[in-house]
Amino acid sequence: MEPQLSHTVAEGVATVVIDHPAKRNAMTAAMWRALPPLLTELAADPSVRALVLTGAGETFCAGADISSLGASAEGGDAPQRLAVLAEEALAAFPRPTLAAVRGACVGGGAQLAAACDLRFAEEGSRFGVTPAKLGIVYPASSTARLAALTGPATAKYLLFSGELIGTERALRCGLVDEVLPAGGLAARVAAFTSVLAARSPLTQAAAKEFVAGRTDRIAHWEDEARRSTDAAEGVAAFLERRTPHFTWTPASTGE
């Protein structure tokens, strides 16, 4: 089977699978290129309320497929630029995103996981940021994102050494949000994303921008809150002791 990014949408949750088992789900140049348009397609689907990124089988992503990147450079695309464009597209996805990690989450895999809003990992998974092993300057935007998650000291440890860390340290430093026992990841991800899909998309979209530090759209979100019926629905559902049905959608695609 050719390396690919496959995806499904079910019950409000889009699942994108990194599928390249011959290379432990390493990302080829074609896969890096394919991710931004796929995310654009999924963002345009109003049924998608959350997105999960995971790897096929027992590995999340072992990095970039180095053998495929030379050809991309010859074609005019700097390999690192492909990865950054994919990472930025994932970080900008307008709904909550969650990386579901098993096994290796290394190099480009860690770059993608860090670009998600949340990361759940199965016990025994391993994380590493490895440009120092290849003499590569890690992108400034990726470095800043890693440091924001883990703090400067751990970011330096990972970047300076290229060493891998386990789930216990990853959880302690903020690289991972939850660690699940072997066999428990899929059920927990399904349960948690069903919660995300049931919550107010207005709250989530505004919170995602505010947490990212955007302050230029406060008035926009105040207008969206006035236009939305989500708050009225949430209060009514609380008083009536029922599950709320939130219906907000952005006024335009310029979310």
Automatic annotation (TrEMBL):
Source domain of life: Bacteria
SUPFAM superfamilies for this protein: ClpP/crotonase
InterPro entries: ClpP/crotonase-like_dom_sf, Enoyl-CoA_hydra/iso, Enoyl-CoA_hydra_C, Enoyl-CoA_Hydratase/Isomerase
Similarity comment text for this entry: Belongs to the enoyl-CoA hydratase/isomerase family.
Protein name, as recorded: Enoyl-CoA hydratase/isomerase family protein
Organism: Streptomyces albidoflavus
